[in-house]
Records
---
Amino acid sequence: MTDQVLIRPIGEDERVAWEPLWIAYLEFYKAKLPQETRDVTWRRFHDPSEPIFALGAYINGRMVGIAHYMFHRSAWTLGDYCYLQDLYVDETVRGSGAGRALIEGVCDQAKASGASRVHWLTQPGNSPARILYDKIAEDSGFMQYRVIF
C-alpha cells in the first residue's frame, strides 16, 4: 500500500521545508534567484492582498512537493484564469501521485475561486512531467515568447 498524499496550503512556519524544494526546482530549470527574490516570494504567499499562493504535498507529514499558482484576468472569459507557475516533487517520491495531487489541488482552488481554467508551461524536453500532463490536461499548442528587461 502506498502512503497517502495530503495537499494543503504551505504555512508561514514551513519555510525551512519549502525552500529546499524551491531551490531544487530552480536548479532543474538552471535558474538562479537572489535571496531577496526568494524572501519577497515567500512573503507574498502569506499576504492576503497578493494573488499568489503555495500548496504543499505531504507524505507522512513531510513536505515532498510544491505548487505555486496565481489568478489573473483574461479578456476571453468573465472568470479569472489560474496560472500554475511552479510545480516540483522531490525526486525520491516521484511516482507517488504527489504531482497529480498538487495539480488537482490547484484545480480545486481555481474552481472554488470561479476561475475558468488552469494553465501552465513546461519545457518540451521535460518528458517525465509531460507523461503526467498529457494524462490530465490538453496541450494548447502555443509556444511562449519573452521579452526580458
---
Amino acid sequence: MSPQPDIRRGRAQDLPAVLALLEAARLPTADIVSINEPQIWVLEKRGAIVGAVALECFGREALLRSLVIAPEYRKRGLGRELVACVENAARTDHISQLVLLTETAEHFFRSLGYGVLDRQQVSAGLQQSAEFRSLCPVSAICLSKTIAAALS
C-alpha cells in the first residue's frame, strides 16, 4: 500500500507545480501570482504536488479558490481533506465566511455544507476580486459557508 499524501502550507517554490495543476484542470491562473499574500495548501505524495487549494482573504471573509486534484488521485476523498484543512485554518484566522465560484463542483461543495448565494449578496470587497470581476463567468454558481471561529 502506498503512503497517504501529506497536506501542508504551500511555499513559493511550489507555485509552478500548483499553476501546472490548475492549467491542466482548466482553472483560472491569471491572477494567482498577483494576489496579495495568497494562502495555499498543497497535497504532496512522494515529493510531487498532486493537489492544491487556496484562500484569498478579505477581512473576515475569504474566497476559497483553485481546489484541484490530479486526475489519478481523484475519488479518494483528498479534495474533502484539503477543504477541511482550509476551513480549519480559516477558523483559526477568524474568517467567518468562505465564498467560492464554480462551474463544475457545485454538488461536491454542497455535500460539504456550502449553500448557493446570490452573487449580488457578496460583499463589495469580494466582488472586487479578479475572480468575481473577470475570471469566472456570470454562469458560475456562487456558494458560501459560514464557519465558526476557533476559540482562542
---
Amino acid sequence: MSAPSIPVGETHAKKFLVTEEHTAKHIGSGEVEVLSTPSMILFMESTALELAQKHLPQHMTTVGVRVDVKHMNPVPVGEEVEVTAKLVKQEGRKLVFEVRATWKDLTIGEGVHERYIVDREKFAAKVRKLIEERRRG
C-alpha cells in the first residue's frame, strides 16, 4: 500500500476542557483530582489523529503505536488545555509527531507520538484474524 503524503511541518491545535472523568482519581492512575497522564496522552493522540485524517481518503485512518511524553505540571478540573501536534517526519506509513499540551502559558506535557496509516478494512480483517487465532488456542 502506498501511503498518502502528509505535509511535514503541518501543525494542528485542539482545546480540551478538563472534567472529572479526566482526573487521575477517576480513572485510577492516581489519587488526585487533576488531569491524569493517560487523559493528557488521549488529548495528544486525538489531536495528531485529526491532523493526519485531514489528508487521508475515507478508507484510511491512523493507529497510534508509540507515545513518549513527559507530564510536567498539574491541571485542575474546569480548566482548558490546548494541545498541539506537529508532523515532524513521515516514512512511508509511519508518522512522527511532536506533541505539546499547555494550560494558559504553562507547558504541562510534551514529547513524541507515532502513528501508522492503515486501510480501515484491512486493519479490521487483521483484528478479526487475531481474535480467531487466539480463540482457537
---
Amino acid sequence: MTSPFRHRVRVQYIDTDQGGVVHHAAYLRFLEQARVELLRARGIDYRAFEREERTAIPVAEARVRYRRPCFFDDVLEVETCVGLINRAKLRFDYRVWREQDEVLTAEITCACVNLDRMRICSVHPRFREVFG
C-alpha cells in the first residue's frame, strides 16, 4: 500500500438531493477527482498519459460504504492510496472525512486498457514505478 494522499472537496449544491443530502453518485466524482490528483501529485498527468501511452485505467469495480450523510458546503477530506497492483489492475483505497467523522470508505478497481485495441493490458511500468 502506498502512502495516503489527501485531497479536499467542498460539496456543491448540485451534489445534493431534495433532502439536502449529498447524492450517492456525487461521491464517485469526489473519488475520481482525488484519484486524478493523486496521479498528478506523483508526476502523472493522466490526460497526457492517455494520449501519449495509449493506455487508460477505467473503473472496473466500485465498492462504497456510506457511513454518515454529508450536506451542501461541507468540506470533505478524501484520503487516497493505491492498495493493490497486480498484472492488469490497480485498486485505489479511499477514506473520506468531514472534520473528525469518517463518512465513507471505498475501493475502486481500475483495469488497464490499451486504447488502440480496447483490450485489457498489463499495468503500465510508470504506475509500477510510482506506486509499486
